[in-house]
Amino acid sequence: MTKRFDIITIGAATRDVFLRSAGIKIIRNENFSTGEAECFALGSKIEVQELVFETGGGATNTAVGFSRQGFRTAFIGKIGHQDARGQEVLRALRMEKVNVGLVTKDHQRGTAYSVLLLTSRGERTALVYRGASADFHPRDLPRREFRADWMYVSSLAGELPIIRRIWNVAKKKKIRIAWNPGSSELAHGLSKLEPFLQQADVVIMNQEEAARLMKLTTSQDDAPFQYLRRITGGVTVVTMGTEGSFGGDRRSAWHCGTHHVHVVDTTGAGDAFGSGFVSAFIRDEDNISGALQLGTENAEAVIRVIGAKAGLLQRHTAKRPAPVRSIIRR
Fold first, then answer.
1. Cys-Cys with 240: which of 139, 147, 207, 323 at CB 3.0–4.6 Å?
2. Shortest CA distance to 289 belongs to which of 250, 248, 236?
3. C-beta atoms surrounding 96 within 10 Å
């Protein structure tokens, strides 16, 4: 019998190790893209105060988020063939009641791996080996039959053929799409991405990504959101970190604020927001403001702990809504 899922997540799966050390210093230097750098003395031995092994990748993070919200969830992605990292990814997903029967295994590349260097401020620098996740092709989509109400698509290493194939499958099977494109997808530019944006039911980006895609500056407040929502066929969401988030369709739009929380690790905040928002939206499509609130609360829970999954909310734990206001109705 063909299995039916509420939602299937598609994208990367990684094995992560988090390192926190007082020996990692932050210096300001305009030679770096962010204006700051994490540094330690060359040739020195740096003591590590905290070491945490976790699993990550946008698709596994959101899969756990949806499962904890009570949805029948499956993950589609690519891991190494029988390597220990891949087995850890599968074990972690099974423990969270995520179906892994649609996973593809790569005989050439190993499972993706990340080393994350944490600062005292909760920010991190990631050293990433993308491995099998960067080698996902249209042929890697499951050939066996499956049914789902939704797909949540995260970064797929910028491969437009696989995105096109997913959209075609979704159209054929009448599956709705929530899309959180990564930087490699956005690098293709608006002209190539516009058809996918128009067909998606929910599109989620951060402010810098939306501004870059629209060729705007991030200092233009809600401009990236306002421009993007005129193009997106469904609901558009733009996140802005501690400045909150915007969400809306072509008729109405909302801004949701944030709470002041102690940040331990920002890893997975965007994925937590995405799974929280879409979970609430699936339950009540007329309550975009409420979806923004659950997305915010989920992200705030995740950044209080190390790793992208540990803080993800169970459905019954959501209880601290952030302030929300209407910004336009038309």
1. 207
2. 248
3. 19
Pairing of strands 73-76, 98-99: parallel
Q: Residue 43: CB partners within 8 Å, gap ≥ 6?
A: none
Which residue(s) pair with 151 in the sheet?
A: 8, 177
Residue whose C-alpha is closest to residue 67's, from 296, 299, 262, 315: 315
Q: How many CB atoms lie within 10 A of CB 159?
A: 17
Q: Do residues 60 and 75 touch, judged by C-beta distance below 8 A?
A: yes
Extract the tokens encoding 249. Answer: 């369709």
Q: Domains plus CATH for the chain?
A: 4-13+56-111+136-329 (3.40.1190.20)
DSSP 8-state symbol, 322: P
Rounded CA separation 36/153 (Å)? 31
Amino acid letter, 246: F
Q: Is the entire prediction scored with pTM above 0.70?
A: yes
CA 157/CA 187 separation, integer angstroms: 10
Angle at 16 between CA 121 and CA 86, to 5 degrees: 165
- DSSP SS3 for 247: strand
Which helix (H) or strand (E) segment is 79 a member of? Answer: strand 78-80
Type of residue numbered 249: D
Check: CB of residue 293 under 8 Å from CB of residue 279.
no
Which residues are CB-contacts of 172 (< 8 A; sequence separation ≥ 6)?
A: none
Question: Under a CB-based contact definition with an 8 Å cutoff, are residues 136 and 78 in contact?
Answer: yes
Residue whose entry in the numeric block shows the structure tokens 């499509």: 285
